[in-house]
Design goal:
This protein is an alpha/beta fold. It has helices at about 10-20, 70-80, 120-135, 155-165, 185-195, 215-225, 255-260, 265-280, 290-300, and strands at about 1-5, 25-30, 40-45, 60-65, 85-90, 140, 145, 170, 175-180, 180, 200-205, 210, 230-235. Helix 2 packs parallel to helix 3 (about 120-135) and helix 6 packs across helix 8 (about 265-280).
């Protein structure tokens, strides 16, 4: 396939560029050229907020839109003169109000979510604009992505704690649930959509199973060959001051996805793979949060 990937230099879009290029596809990435590019892909250097005519006359079998966060992002790309057969947009599970019954299903009413704020409402506006202008486009609503090229300080935090043999300070009893989706499963599912062209066009995506935050930390430590010692934090302290996820639990119904792709990478296997990559690429994770310092200065001393 001739594939246009928006982004291509960080996490999900970088992994997708490498994944599809390695499988022999003709991959083009659209980004500002400010970071190192994946070998073997064509770079179209530009800012999607001001594309001009850099895409005019180009045609792709698939646009994999990973970096659209607003309606205007979608509008700019559709009005750029680019041609395409299939379009897959990575939206977010943040489009579901936290007041909806769980697990969230694709048929539920979408709207503002007080946890995610403008991020969710902007993604929803982008979805609606795309649906109005490209009815056959596919929209994916993931929970938390994880895997190789992760650039946020999520898995890297418990990895660092494990490497340093630190105890892990766990919010409450650790029973809050999380749901994940490996970047390789995302790419496999994109291939399935293009191959099968299912009649449904909106998909929740993710592992069918959830884990508690305690289980997640245990798996992160296990990937590093360690076993955590937990300290439960019950103080009235904002969770995001010392932990890498919001105090927000939700579950997606991924039945539509599983009907097309029954198997997903197990979280244990995916974290083991991510840790092996992280050991050699610690600088790929940026904007590190000072969780350890906060714990040492505000929790541990008590």
């Amino acid at each position: 396939m001739k594939i246009l990937i928006t982004g291509g230099t960080t996490f999900v879009s970088k992994f997708a560029a490498q994944y599809f290029a390695a499988k022999g596809n003709d991959v083009t990435v659209l980004n500002r050229g400010s970071r190192e590019q994946i070998p073997g892909v064509e770079l179209i250097k530009g800012d999607r907020e001001n594309l001009g005519d850099i895409l005019a006359g180009r045609h792709f079998d698939l646009i994999l839109d990973i970096t659209a966060y607003t309606k205007q992002d979608i509008k700019n790309l559709l009005e750029s003169g680019v041609g395409f057969d299939d379009y897959i947009f990575v939206s977010s599970s943040a489009v579901y109000p936290e007041t909806n019954p769980q697990p969230f299903t694709e048929d539920q009413q979408c709207g503002p979510n007080s946890v995610w704020g403008d991020y969710g409402t902007n993604k929803l506006a982008a979805e609606r604009y795309l649906q109005a202008n490209v009815p056959n486009a596919y929209i994916l609503r993931p929970p938390y992505f994880y895997g190789i090229f992760e650039n946020l300080y999520r898995e890297a935090f418990p990895f660092d704690c494990a490497i340093a043999d630190r105890p892990f300070y766990l919010p409450g009893d650790g029973s809050m649930k999380l749901q994940f989706f490996n970047v390789s499963d995302f790419c496999r599912f994109a291939e399935i959509l293009v191959e099968k062209h299912p009649g449904e066009h909106i998909f929740n995506v993710g592992n069918p199973d959830t884990v508690t935050i305690k289980q997640w930390v245990e798996l992160c430590y296990k990937a590093a060959g360690k076993e955590p010692k937990f300290v439960n934090v019950y103080k009235d302290i904002p969770q995001r001051s010392y932990f890498c996820f919001h105090d927000y639990e939700y579950v997606l119904d991924v039945g539509r996805q599983c009907a097309l792709m029954p198997d997903t990478v197990s979280l244990e296997d995916g974290l083991r793979e991510e840790f092996a990559w992280y050991k050699d690429n610690p600088d790929s994770v940026y904007n590190r949060k000072p969780y350890m310092n906060f714990i040492d200065e505000n929790i541990k001393k008590d």
